[in-house]
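Researcher: Please translate sequence to structure tokens.
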Amino acid sequence: MTDRATRYLCESLSHKKEGAAEALRIVHAEHGYELTLDDAKDGDHIFEEDGTKYLLVDPQVSEALSDALVDIAESPQGKRLTLTGGEAPNPSEPEPAKTEPAEPEPEPKTKP
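Model: Translation complete:
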């Protein structure tokens, strides 16, 4: 996990709605890997930054990606999380999260 990926994931979680799951999880899907919001489960590999959980990986995915590098790459759609190495397709870009962290609510406008 690169420092850029850590910052990107932590920043993404700073926009989640109150009461949403605590962290992002890498899950194996039909066409590779994707991110989803979830809470920690027994046996998970948990990545933390300053005491805050930001990434969860179950034992099977952790084993498959044990030699993979998680990083950030620029794309026409913006920054993308990438996986290279391990059993990840080379290179692999996880699909966008099924439940993406919400954008911050706009500040209410007051009448002059």
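Researcher: Any highlights?
Model: Helices lie at 3-13, 59-64.
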